[in-house]
Design goal:
The complex is a heterodimer. The longest helix of chain A has 12 residues, at 2-13. Chain A is built from 8 helices and 7 strands, in the order H-E-H-E-H-E-E-E-H-E-E-H-H-H-H. Chain A is of the alpha+beta class. In chain A, strands 1-2-5-4-3 form a 5-stranded mixed sheet, with helices on both faces. Chain A has a two-stranded antiparallel sheet with strand order 6-7. Chain A has 2 domains: 2-112, Beta Polymerase, domain 2 (2-Layer Sandwich); 115-165, no CATH class. Helices cover 45% and strands 21% of the residues of chain A. By secondary structure, chain B is mainly α. The chains are: A alpha+beta, B mainly alpha. The A-B interface holds A 1, 25-26, 29-30, 33-38, 79-80, 102, 104-105, 139 and B 2, 5-6, 8, 10-11, 13-14, 16-18, 20-22, 24.
Chain lengths: 168, 42
């Protein structure tokens, strides 16, 4: 994991990306019990290109130059495949902007706030994503009112209701 | 149990996920080899 985080930090310091934050199950493990996952999701902000097209080519090239190995949509560092995602919608852009600076065994990194991890999970909307939101609520790892407010702001209140009613 | 899990650091939880993945990989490989060998002869 250290090598993944160091590579992401290097992408920022080299100007390949403007910012990143860890989301998904690895981000969730910062707040709640660990759940099995096979990859690390890093949500990134890319510098704007002249054409307006979003491409991850420069990111993949930089990561492979740092020793990463491309496998399908991932770049593997040691035991961890890294999935590089973009700030594809306003919720994810806000989640990256408001991510919390944390420390992983001496390596600085940033992780989504609990509310954003849950809201992005609601937006993704698979069974395992709803389950993750339930775990946050059951373990008291997210403020339900703050999450509801965020869910309402991003049109996810119905999905939040399903989780609260146990219908997901 | 919950308090124990809460007391674990992020890195400890990530390491436990990593161990789960390695165990899963070994189990899948063992199963693949067993299936490739076919049914046991008695």
């Amino acid at each position: 994991m250290q090598s993944v985080l160091r590579a992401l930090n290097r992408l920022v310091s080299d100007g390949v990306i403007l910012a990143y934050a860890i989301g998904g199950a690895i981000g969730a493990a910062f707040y709640i019990e660990a759940a099995q996952t096979e990859d690390v999701d890093a949500f990134t902000v890319l510098p704007s290109s002249g054409s307006g097209l979003i491409t991850l080519t420069a990111v993949y090239e930089a990561l492979t130059a740092m020793g990463g190995v491309v496998e399908r949509e991932y770049v593997r560092f040691g035991n961890w495949p890294l999935r590089v995602l973009t700030d594809a919608n306003p919720l994810i852009a806000e989640a990256i902007a408001e991510a919390v600076a944390v420390d992983y065994e001496g390596t600085p990194t940033r992780v989504f706030r609990a509310e954003h991890l849950c809201a992005v999970a609601l937006q993704t909307g698979r069974s395992k994503d709803y389950l993750r939101v339930s775990m946050f609520l059951e373990q008291g790892a997210v403020d339900p009112q703050a999450l509801l407010s965020l869910a309402e702001r991003f049109g996810l209140a119905d999905r939040m209701g399903k989780v609260q009613r146990g219908e997901s | 149990m919950r308090e124990y899990l809460r007391s674990k650091t992020w890195a400890e939880k990530v390491e436990s996920i990593e161990r789960m993945n390695v165990a899963d990989k070994i189990a899948k490989e063992t199963m693949r080899k067993a299936l490739a060998r076919g049914p046991a002869r008695t």
